[in-house]
């Protein structure tokens, strides 16, 4: 999601005097120069501050939570986040077993909710607000039920688009969100565009994730639909039954290249109403003469397309998605 700009809105704050407080200025990893959207965010902050000053509440830029980009976290901070996600995956679910007998953990509660409320969560007017609420609830569970001290990180797609497999997010080491899936044969992800853009080509993965902190993760709910082959069917038509299997992924540069910062910048700046903004986000109408015209929503999802079906979720609410998936 709109990557960085949404972090601005995460700073629900009222304001003290300018200049902007240090608290609201994210700590950056110097390895990544600011991209056009980062710069847009920075230039917008004074306006956020002025707007907040018109509000009558106790939030300030000093006490607002700041969500940070994955690589802007230190390695120990990344590990703390991973530990909290693993903790959530080890706690019992709260969803009634009559609704989702396949939910095996507190983490699965969020997966189940995203599945059952998918239509509501994704319509034009709800998409962004409802996902922000969803991420807020997930972050709250990490903090209150698993002792996580930080906030939900997000993913700036642009930082990793040229080489996602070797990025700090997907390189498969202990401080990554897990590595690529094992090589498997599948063609790619079907897109509703004219040839040759009717498919995001496979990047060669698609099998089980074998490296990193989530290599032993058991996915239980779903699939309702899948983009890779050989995924066992769920025993229930609503996908809520137990279907234990590995986490599959295809960390996909062909998808990521449709999510570089210039696409996000154009999405934000070139659409004057919610309808055109939403349609562009979904890749409609198709961009002409563009090799990666997926739309940010698809492009972001399928950076880790696999099973669960490319629905990422957590992190990166950066745009929308993020790190693990649901
Ligand atoms: C601001 O909020 C406080 C506490 O809710 C309320 O008592 C006060 O009337 C509000 N002031 C304005 C100008 O709305
Ligand atoms: C994992 O990768 C990150 C990003 O490249 C690096 O900063 C970190 O030191 C690596 N950790 C190990 C244990 O190699
Ligand atoms: C973004 O940049 C890429 C690479 O230069 C280009 O192919 C693409 O058309 C650009 N997209 C937009 C929306 O400007």
Characterize this entry briefly.
The chain has helices spanning 3-10, 36-52, 75-88, 106-116, 118-122, 127-146, 157-160, 253-256, 261-269, 274-281, 296-301; strands at 181-183, 188-190, 199-201, 206-209, 248-251, 304-307, 312-314, 324-325. With 326 residues, it is mostly helical.
Task: Reconstruct the topology from this structure.
Elements: H1 3-10, H2 36-52, H3 75-88, H4 106-116, H5 118-122, H6 127-146, H7 157-160, E1 181-183, E2 188-190, E3 199-201, E4 206-209, E5 248-251, H8 253-256, H9 261-269, H10 274-281, H11 296-301, E6 304-307, E7 312-314, E8 324-325
Antiparallel strand pairs: 1-4, 2-3, 5-6, 7-8
Helix pairs in contact: 1-2, 3-6
Major sheet description:
2 strands, antiparallel
What spatial order of strands do you see in the largest sheet?
Answer: 1-4
- Give the strand tally: 8
The figure for the number of domains is 2
CATH architecture of the largest domain: Orthogonal Bundle
Helix and strand run: HHHHHHHEEEEEHHHHEEE
CATH topology of the largest domain: di-copper center containing domain from catechol oxidase
Helix count from the secondary structure assignment = 11
Hetero ligands? 2-acetamido-2-deoxy-beta-D-glucopyranose
Q: Per the principal axes of the C-alpha atoms, what is the gross shape? A: globular
Gyration radius over CA: 19 Å
- Kindly name the structural category: mainly alpha
Averaged pLDDT: 86
